[in-house]
Amino acid sequence: MLTSTVRLSHLILFLILTQGGFTLLADQPALHSAAQLRDLTPEQIQQELPVTITGVVTGMRGPVYPEFFIQDHTGGVVAHLDHPVNDSVQVGQQVMVEGYTDPQQPTPRVRVQKLTAGNIVGLPDARIAKTSELQEGRYDCVYVELTGVIRAASLEQSIEPPRLLLDFGRSDKRLGVWVSYFDQNLLQKLTVDTVVRLRGVCLTWKSPSLQPFSTFIVVGDPQQIKVVNAAGDPWSTAVQSIKSLRHHLSDQDLERRKRVQGVVTLHWPGKITVLQDDTSAIGVSISSNLPLQLGDRVDVAGFTSTQDTAIVMEDASIQKLEAQSLPLADVMTARQIQASLPKVDVDFKPVRITATVQKLLLTQQGTQTLVLQNQGVTFTARLPASTKLPVEVKTGAAIEVTGVCRPTYSDKVKRLGRAPDGFEVWLQDARSITLSKSETGWTAGKVLALVSAAALATIGMAVWGIRARVRMKKRTRQMLQAIRARNEAELLSKERMRLAGDLHDTLSQSMAGAAMQMEVAAAMAQKKPENAMQHLMLAKRLLDRGRQDLRRTVWDLQPSALVQHSLASALHDLAREVTELAHCKVAVRCEEHKHTDHLPERLRSHLFRIAQEALGNAVQHAHASQITISVVGSVDQGITLKITDNGQGFNIHQALGPENGHFGLTSMQERATRLGGAFSISSTNTGTLIEVTVPAGHLTS
Which of 177, 249, 388, 512 is the most exposed place for a label (fewest CB within 10 A)? Predict the structure, then answer.
């Protein structure tokens, strides 16, 4: 019994408190203007405060919806009925609504409990506004007027009844217009690039904290849409240069469609395409899925707009023209690009730059990023997230990237209004990345610089050779005095012949080979700089060896190739070098090492010089593609040296001699004679054979 009494007392107390709460709510003064309602906080809206507003019906989303829009002298609000609007009110009718704030919606709206309809008084004056102003949300539920160019038109058939959707303004601040009533005639008029003047109610979707995130205009009467200028054929518009578009932006609401032609230098499907003509480059947002390749020449019609810090074309239509080669990317350093930013427009400019990978960043907004560094300047390279990078592209790797340059602006620069203080490079795909041998890379300019340096070194060698010849003449004069004193004139002649032959065999061959390699390097510098470096290294080796041989020849020493080497080893090195230099296959068959690796120094020196001279003649004069050197015999049986080639041959009896400055054949014959051996040569139009035979009795002398 006591328990029942307690429960009853609790129930009575609850009813008293509840009734008291309703009384307090009812006693609160009602909100009487749209401005008061719109000034409420989200917490106040949840309290279901009383509202009594008198105003004019400015529109509705459709008769099947339970909402219409009412506007007084302070602004507008949404009135929500508990049934479809149907014929409850008419646009332009004065009404009074009584009810409470709607706790189900963050946007201030009235849940109507009583509707009092009055006379038709007509629509209020429309607030004339631009798309950027409407996007701010301050004209929410206000009857507005907008004049602009239609950038896109489509039917929204996912709702009933279907609506016609019109888009205005640039893509990042797009304003939509919902047309509730339309016919086929209106559809044909409201196409892309049509200039219209329309009136309707601006609505803004808001978050629970009342922050606007989507704005649109509801047009309930098609008579409120007037065509100011009809759309024309986009392909009949005159083609403009890209540079003229980038420097003449007009009112974004009234910007008409423009037309340009250019070559595709970057294409990220669904994101951006970059075009370049003879004047400049521009980014394009294409509305179609037309497949494009780099180098395609296209015709584009679209709307110019600003996107971040760039001027772009949006909502563009495109058609392909004939294919065209890609414009050459400028080879630049990071410092050159950085220095040009304040004074040169490099936006979307094709560039090629070498750098070292600092790190790889995670995917952001559909792209992946490489942080690169060149000459102490850090920049980024972006490419589509779907691109699979080569495994060699990792931290510390030296690479070369080819893409389009995009200036970047730090927050500080944006505040101070200065020039861009950084840049990034947008890449097409993994093919835009190539591995480099070093951070700076072998560019054509650097290879040419090395060729020039090698040429200077050659000149230096020539000067050194002249000075060596002067020293040689002085030494020869000294020797001549000694020879005259001993009455050995014949020895003087032979010594002169030997020195001339040595110089011909060493300095002439080395200089000729070095010159040939530098010519090849210069020819390859532009196309294959890495191959040009190989030829430069070979030229350097030849110059170094020539310098050594010249010094040793002057002082009557043996060839540098024979220092601490056997004849067989020296001939193999010579064959390998000629093969690399002249791309001529040289084979060596040497049996000398089977019997002794220590032939007399004098014998090894003369046989090596004969082989060296024969190879030089076969390559330079006979243009042979295959040469064979053979050394057979033994200390007991004698040594035979044979050099054969498949060159074009020559007339032995008409060959030029020392009197014409040609010491080659005479030098070989003289060397064979000094060894006490025999020298023979035969030549036809299919090749040449040179044979030197040294008897056994002369091998140890």
Answer: 388
